[in-house]
Design goal:
2 domains, five-stranded antiparallel beta sheet, about 15% strand, globular, binds alpha-D-glucopyranose
């Protein structure tokens, strides 16, 4: 949080997320590491991003790839040492970039000493650090389901109580109502800031205050357990906890910091509160509405395909809701989402590059801070998953087992996984066309996408019309043009199922962003004011540098940004 500058630096910044396990492997064990990241920092400097967000690197049993932390003040030997971390931070800072840590404090690993102590007896001084409850009628205390399937409660035989885990049973939820827990989190944050980091991405941070009394969620016929966002999220004390944490950690600290809270189920109304600078809670939040548009009621693996109008309206709603208070984060991808070019674009080789660039143009033209996930800047695609054994992620594996147990329809389960599995985002970075895509000299922990032979960084960096070059150009525009930070967002043609069109406006200047989100050519009439305006950026070679008539003829996946003085 940096209320001292107006506008704050992070409103013109672009953030790049690194998933260390899959980024670059320096020691050849098949898993990416900190030295590997150091070796690739020049790629990120060339892209021009301002901030790196590192997915968790702390010691962890790695049940959820590090989102299950057993020590908040060290580095997992898989990734390196604290000395490697310090070297990385220095190299990042030397290149004028910042680094933010992933802070996972809704839950810990069950192997964290706090939980080991907590479960040791009902009288343990750490008992209240987690959420323990007695049985209800001989069963779980309520009907909450874990986001990773099954009940959200695990029975502890030794002390004869259940503990709450909204994620895996090896990820017990911390009890934020207990003041020593909040103090411990503040101390961890201060410890990393003292080491020199520039902020935090805070994992599922709207889950830290649950609905008082932990009531049952409304039942869903045929389901014993319900994944109950309304009960898990945005509970009565969440704003107090965040304001208290921010004040304690950043209140007397000078410097340029950034915080972003991941918030499944958050509404725009809540997000206005979380990101209102006057309230001192968070700089931005990650909302999930636009990445939920292709799900059916059965959850993310109930994949229904894209309705572009629904997607547009989801993002536009957030542009409008945070227009005068608060701030949006903008993202297509992260380590939990399938690859955007396969999901909302077109990964057929004939349209792959144009659609990747068109989607990038749409997102980076909006108001907010863009986040780029590793490989997105190359247009990396989903992996051609075929069998259950192809998947490593516990969410995918559990889902497959659940579906097969319930209906026996393995083909349907596999189709859902292929489209939506988190492993799509987690296959290794494609650095070159050689063995393992240049990711590792060993055997990668997840296979490299076979398309690395032609889809890789070496092919693209330095090539003028590559996906990488387009991301670099968009990032440069974000730095150079205050209108991309400040301009008023106005959607146009919202009900058109193929065109995505909007303007950004300041009193002295206006931008028009148009994208044809499909293979078929489309024409579009522009108002006379726009005739003769300059093409600021296009995604295809040969687009005329000015708009010469009232009709724009757009080929498949054509995307353009026009600019004019007003
Ligand atoms: C967040 C993370 C995800 C993780 C979960 C539990 O959603 O992004 O990867 O599995 O929290 O920590």
């Amino acid at each position: 949080m940096t209320p001292q500058h107006d506008p704050p630096w992070w409103q013109s910044a672009v953030v790049y997320q690194i998933y260390p396990r899959s980024f670059a492997d320096a020691d050849g064990d098949g898993i990416g590491d900190l030295r590997g990241i150091i070796g690739r920092l020049d790629h990120l400097a060339a892209l021009g991003v301002d901030v790196l967000w590192l997915s968790p690197i702390y010691p962890s049993p790695q049940v959820d790839n590090g989102y299950d932390i057993s020590d908040y003040r060290d580095v997992d030997p898989l990734f390196g040492t604290l000395a490697d971390f310090d070297a990385l931070l220095a190299e990042v800072h030397d290149r004028g970039m910042k680094l933010v840590m992933d802070l996972v404090v809704n839950h810990t690993s069950d192997e964290h000493p706090w939980f080991v102590e907590s479960r040791s007896s009902r009288d343990s001084p750490k008992r209240d650090w987690y959420i323990w409850r007695d049985t209800r009628d001989g069963a779980e205390p309520n009907n909450w389901g874990s986001l990773f399937s099954g009940s959200a409660w695990e029975w502890d035989e030794a002390t004869e109580q259940y503990y709450l885990h909204l994620f895996d049973r090896k990820q017990p939820d911390l009890n934020w109502e207990h003041p020593p827990v909040r103090k411990a989190v503040q101390d961890i944050m201060s410890w990393w800031l003292d080491r020199g980091v520039d902020g935090f991405r805070m994992d599922v941070i709207n889950f830290i205050s649950k609905t008082s009394g932990l009531p049952d969620a409304p039942a869903i016929p045929g389901r014993r357990f319900v994944v109950a966002f309304a009960e898990f999220a945005d509970g009565p004390r969440v704003h107090d906890y965040l304001a208290e944490t921010t004040l304690a950690v950043f209140g007397n600290r000078a410097g340029d910091f950034m915080t972003v809270g991941e918030m499944p189920g958050v509404t725009p109304e809540q997000a206005r509160l979380y990101t209102d600078p006057e309230r001192g809670e968070l700089d931005m939040v990650f909302q999930f509405e636009h990445v939920s548009v292709d799900h059916g009621a059965g959850g993310k693996f109930d994949y229904r395909g894209l309705d572009l109008v629904v997607l547009k309206k989801a993002l536009h709603r957030w542009q409008a809701a945070l227009a005068d208070t608060g701030w949006n984060s903008l993202y297509w991808n992260n380590h939990d989402q399938p690859r955007v070019v396969s999901r909302f674009g077109d990964d057929d080789p004939a349209y792959w590059a144009a659609s990747a660039k068109a989607l990038a143009t749409i997102l980076h033209g909006m108001r907010g801070t863009p986040f780029v996930y590793q490989g997105e800047e190359l247009g990396m695609t989903n992996y051609p998953f075929r069998t259950p054994q192809d998947h490593a992620d516990l969410e995918a594996v559990n889902h497959y087992d659940d579906v097969v147990a319930a209906s026996g329809d393995a083909q349907a389960a596999l189709a859902g996984l292929a489209a939506m599995s988190r492993d799509n985002a987690r296959t290794p970075m494609q650095w070159d066309g050689g063995p393992n895509g240049g990711f590792s000299a060993g055997t990668p922990w997840l296979p490299v996408n076979p398309n690395h032979t032609w889809l890789n960084a070496e092919e693209q960096v330095g090539t003028t019309d590559s996906v990488f070059a387009h991301y670099r150009d968009l990032i440069r525009l974000r730095h150079d043009l205050p209108i991309l930070r400040d301009g008023v967002f106005t959607p146009l043609l919202e009900d058109d199922p193929q065109l995505w069109v909007y303007t950004r406006t300041l009193p002295e200047r206006e931008l028009l962003v148009v994208a044809n989100c499909g293979r078929e050519p489309r024409s579009m009439e522009i108002c006379p004011d726009w005739i003769g305006s300059a093409l600021l950026l296009g995604n295809l070679l040969g687009t005329p540098t000015t708009s010469t008539s009232a009709i724009l003829d757009l080929v498949g996946w054509d995307a353009r940004i026009y600019s004019r003085d007003s």
